[in-house]
Amino acid sequence: MPKWRYTITRIFGVALLLVCIGHGSTAQAFAAPSILNVEPVLLKGIVGVAKKKECKKCKKVKLLEQFSERRDAKDGRRSLCRNCTKEDGEKYRKVNKEKKAEYDRKYYIANRKQIKENTKKYSRINRKEILASRKRFRVANREKINKRNAQWKADNPDKMREFSRKYRQDNPEKGRAICRRRRAMKRAVLECFGVEEAKFVRSFWGNRCAVCGKTQKEEGKRAMPIDHWHPLSKGNPLTMANAVLLCISHNGKKRTKEPEEIFDAEIVSRIECQIEKQAMAWKEKC
Q1: 3-state SS string for the chain
Q2: Average pLDDT of the chain?
Q3: In the chain, domain spans
Q4: Which of 180 and 38 is assigned the larger pLDDT?
């Protein structure tokens, strides 16, 4: 509504109220505006009037705030209320799915840059709400999501292999953690050894083999494995009290054996002492 028209409406409302109050009827003062399709409102201590409008579809008289804005309209509002506009939009989208999809595609191509900027800005401002909403959706639709993912993997084996290869290449430590969990699950062992724990172990041992002291540089491009000091095959999960960094050679020699079976007592005692310190250091950090 233009500012001048809004001001005149407010003056008219105040004058009408004063006339009614002058005749000794406060009730009439607040009843009279409704006859003229306006509603009395109290704004910062000044009595004024709020304009109403009839929706052309549902035929209900509602406040202007319940109508969306429209610049070329006389009153600056649409002829249908927000609820009716929403219903019409949903019906149109159901009947014209292909037409709507084609329109959305063309609009996205024409405004791709602006849409991406707006999406990034919204995601940055509402990050917590978005993550919470996604988590609620995953919890509520876990079975449906798992079924859909399994079907997609079965239909796209080549894409899945390429995606897995690229993911392991970009996230080597996460890839190794996934493989460790998979091996533990096959042996029915509960293991929760993630990326942070793996980084801590490598840092604690200085990226050197616990047995021979070989460095990562000497080992080459392939990362030294974090091994179970006591084997997984005998039900021992990978924890800070059972994790040790070994070179590829000693990791291959150890395999599923207990440390005492392949290393002498002095090496075993030294490494176990270090593992105890590792567990205590991790506990203090957490």
Answers
A1: CCHHHHHHHHHHHHHHHHHHHHCCCHHHHHHHHHHCCEEEEEECCEEEEEEEEECCCCCCEEEHHHEEECCCCCCCEEEEEHHHHHHHHHHHHHHCHHHHHHHHHHHHHHCHHHHHHHHHHHHHHCHHHHHHHHHHHHHHCHHHHHHHHHHHHHHCHHHHHHHHHHHHHHCHHHHHHHHHHHHHHHCCCCCCCCHHHHHHHHHHCCCECCCCCCEHHHHCCCCCCEEECCCHHHCCCCCCCCEEECCHHHHHHHCCCCHHHHCCHHHHHHHHHHHHHHHHHHHHHC
A2: 85
A3: 3-80, 188-285
A4: 180
13 and 40 in contact (C-beta within 8 Å)? yes
Mean pLDDT of 90-98: 92
Spatial contact of 224 and 245, defined as CB atoms under 8 Å apart: yes
At 16 the pLDDT is 63
Dump pLDDT digits (tens) for 240-277: 999 999 999 999 898 889 999 999 999 999 999 999 99
Task: Count the alpha carbons within 13 Å of 252 in the hemisphere toward its beta carbon.
Answer: 4
- How many Å apart are CA 210 and CA 275, to the nearest integer? 10
Whether the Cβ atoms of residue 176 and residue 167 lie closer than 8 Å to each other: no
Q: Can you give the pTM of this predicted structure?
A: 0.49
